[in-house]
Amino acid sequence: MSELTLSPESRPLGKSGIMVSSIAWGMWRFAGVSVDDGRRLIEAAFDAGITLFDTADIYGFDGAADKERGGFGDAETLLGQVFAESPGLRDRMVLATKGGITPPTPYDSSPAYLTRALDDSLRRMNTDHVELYQIHRPDILTHPQEVARTLEDMVSSGKVRAVGVSNHTIEQTAALRVFLSIPLASTQPEFSPLETAPMTDGLFDRTMAHDVTVLAWSPLGGGRIANPVTPREQAVAAALDVKAQAAGVSRTTVAYSWIMAHPARVIPIVGTQNATRIAELRDVYGVRWTRSEWYDVLVASRGEQLP
């Protein structure tokens, strides 16, 4: 029986010409630690073969009524401090950030706001460009033609090399693509063994048809795969454990590999802030799935047999 194998080799970020690692490190909890600790985490990610680092201007925000006093921008600020002390790290990194979430509004993708948000992000991160800029969530009150023009201006300015979207529906992405003269390099949906909608609602099919890279957020189901509570979560954990025990790796490692086995070549965004767990990411590439094993996890997630 043929096996589904994973490759640690870099792959293109959509049609951007940028090469990225097959796993990304997410920085939504990259705040509140020292610069030295932050640098050690980044170096651990490099040691695990990761080159793609995902952040956003809102990372660090604690939900306060006043975003400026609620930690908005803290993850980017810490990263900028790391770069100031160790500038060589920036040159080794494919850096992605996002903008458009504006608590408590909650969203703003107007040209004036996004232009300012990008400049603010670059200032906080102590860099003059990012490889990827994504609209974090869609702003219903901004016409996609305006968003497209803003993204094109970002690229033409040299401040951004490639653009993408996050948490957009298929139709929202399609509407934006109509007005863009440059390709969308990425889309960032939630995807995990507990959240499988992108496989069946057409999103993955569209990304494969248009050569768009999928960056999966919350690949461990918001921690529910590691700590399952409901019968469904426990069933998925049990299905993953069968493979984990056979492969001699952790359940989380198997969950990442299950995601990456999909032919859309999904890149999971791993959010652990533990250097030891970051190092375990190398184990992902040793997991080989049979089709039967892979589908067993999907059946557990669905709670019923496939038709």
TrEMBL record:
Matching entries from SUPFAM superfamilies are given as:
NAD(P)-linked oxidoreductase
* Coiled-coil ranges from the UniProt annotation: none
**Keywords carried by this UniProt record:** Oxidoreductase
Q: What class of enzyme is it?
A: oxidoreductase
The molecular function terms in GO held by this entry are:
oxidoreductase activity
Species source reads Sphingomonas hylomeconis
EC assignment: 1.-.-.-
Where does the NADP-dependent oxidoreductase domain lie?
23-290
Protein biosynthesis in keyword set:
no
Name-wise, this protein is Aldo/keto reductase family oxidoreductase
- Domain of life the protein comes from: Bacteria
